[in-house]
Here is the input.
Amino acid sequence: MTTMTITDLELSQVYPNPNNVREALGDEQGLDELAASIRKVGIMQPLVVASHPARPGDFVVIAGHRRLAAAKRAGLLTIPCVVTDRFDGDAEQIAAMLTENIHRENITAVDEARAIQQMLDLPGFDVERVAQTISKSASTVRRRAQLLGAGEQVLAAVKEKKIDLFQAEEIAKYSDEPDLAKDMTEAAESGDDWRWKQATSRAAGTLEWRQSVDKLREHLTGLGYELINAEQTKLPEYRYLQPFYFDELPTKPQEVLELSNYIIPQKALDEYGKDCLRAYLSHGSQRVQWYAFIEKQEEEAAEPELTAEEIAEQEAREKVELALRVEHPKFKEHLEELVHKPAKLKGTAHAALIAAICDRNYTLRSVLEICGIDHDPEDKDLREKGRAKLAEKTIDQLAYALFLYEVINFNSSGTSNLYRLNEHDPAQNGNWAARKFELLESVYGIEPGEAIKQARAFWEPALPGTEAEAVSDEVNF
Here is the structure.
């Protein structure tokens, strides 16, 4: 049976509850004002207390911790209390304090979350019982309990109102992915809505990819496809199948996992033969990339004699390929030198370029490499360290480095492809190579060298047969 009495207790008999859900009792000025009011008119609403579990004759506060603190400041010797035996355990006391404070003022979501977690840790209390006890929905109880997983930095930011509760709860979902949580926390604290949306989208995609990798590996091998690693993708016998050209090939994790009995697309079959496909799980693009394995052709026992026309074509090809080999390193060196030329002033555009580069780790790593900045690709703090290093570069240097990476594919096979004779074949990728040089010329005034002109001329109908110009070590751009 519940009993309740109102009495004046000596202040020395009343102790704060160790399970108080509120870490803070308000600012000092607020407590001083409450103490002044108590000195003037007394305590208008009694505290709610229960018997102290370890000190017979003493009591612990259930509701009224601020009033207790203010009464001590006011110098009172006694304090009016409602003494109750209604609360027979820690969980009930915590729930009572939580409910009472929610209906008063300024209890933080973090304090509420900690109280809920305390209750969930007690025997016999699950989400449903806690929700019923504190008169909140089960989903709210779950979110508050998960909030603690966001980490102390996030919880402190919530208390300081640097980030809102919704953002903190989103960050808490990534408590097992510290790099993603850190990225989202920085975005939330920046106050930039666009940056926050980008960070949440990036985190969701990255988490989906990480959770899919093992499934993808098992699924693809189960279908009979061989997986290759990053080093193998650089070998000449593996040809990357561009998604825009081989659009029948699924690349998104969910699309790949839905494959039941995949058949090689006819286009790939026609170009590379049966059983050509190899899969590469690209962590950078978070996609399945497809490669064709090109078997080396066995040399025939006796090659037929070449015709005069074939000999002329072979000689022309060799001359052009030699010219390309000579010109390529100078061309590449020229592009690299442009990155380090200072130019425009810094400002909003400068900050925007840095943000665009640092938004994706694989872009950041590539741009740092293009700029000749030493870095550890596996460094967890690479984003912040890289941001500081890039801040030393000018607008033009950053724009040019990003242009080389995004447009010229400088850090993969971009310049090498530009200096392969077959890439200038109009029937193959000739338009692609021509477009790259058009962009270099229109944006930076870099005209194709003599070797490139020879490569284009090689594929004209009038050739082969025409003599290529002599190869010179002097190449100017």
Q: What stands out?
A: The chain has a mean pLDDT of 79.
